[in-house]
């Protein structure tokens, strides 16, 4: 790597409810590299592919300590995607709860975090289903967003692994 990648902006502060009924906040992720994506369980569009790429990333991270790298899927459909629904979905895609959490929260908080915090698209579609970004967001140990790889890119998992590896090897910034 030719120097460190740019820190775009701080990831948003949030506190959401995870699929296992616990709370997950941005402060819980401090000191870890983490990858966020945006999905909803009823999605017939890009979500199944994006989720399968996150599952592949989880598998390819292998023995990497979950205390070093976390995966977070944020539901853009909090009215439907309750923790119980997300729990069933997480189980169906083989999510390891030590590494990969599915989270939800009040609609206004989710929308604010995605639009104003993660700087990603989220609008209401024609039939009430959300239309949202298919990008992943890689966040460094200090809570800064670093890269936004496209979840539709067939090489996205390899790019994510390279980004994560680069960030894990960085020395702390001063």
Q: What do we call the CATH homologous superfamily?
A: Glutaredoxin
Distance between the termini: 19 Å
CATH fold annotation? Glutaredoxin
In the CATH scheme, the class would be: Alpha Beta
Instruction: Write the H/E string, N to C.
Output: EEEEHEHEHEEEEH
Q: How is the main sheet built?
A: 8 strands, mixed
Query: Which architecture per CATH?
Result: 3-Layer(aba) Sandwich
SSE-based structural type: alpha+beta
Q: What is the strand content?
A: 15-25%
Q: List low-pLDDT spans.
A: none
Characterise this structure.
The chain is α+β, with helices and mostly antiparallel strands. It has a single domain, classed as Glutaredoxin, CATH 3.40.30.10. It is built from four helices and ten strands, in the order E-E-E-E-H-E-H-E-H-E-E-E-E-H. Strand 2 and strand 3 form a beta hairpin. It is globular, with a radius of gyration of 15 Å. The mean pLDDT is 89.
Task: Present the secondary structure layout.
Layout (H helix, E strand, L loop, with lengths): L8 E2 L4 E4 L4 E3 L7 E7 L7 H15 L7 E7 L7 H10 L7 E5 L2 H11 L4 E3 L5 E3 L4 E3 L4 E4 L8 H14 L5
Parallel strand pairs: 4-5, 5-6
Antiparallel strand pairs: 1-10, 2-3, 2-6, 4-9, 7-8, 9-10
Helix pairs in contact: 1-4
Concise synopsis of the structure shown:
The chain has 174 residues and is α+β, with helices and mostly antiparallel strands. The chain has helices at 47-61, 83-92, 107-117, 156-169, and strands spanning 9-10, 15-18, 23-25, 33-39, 69-75, 100-104, 122-124, 130-132, 137-139, 144-147. The chain has four helices and ten strands.
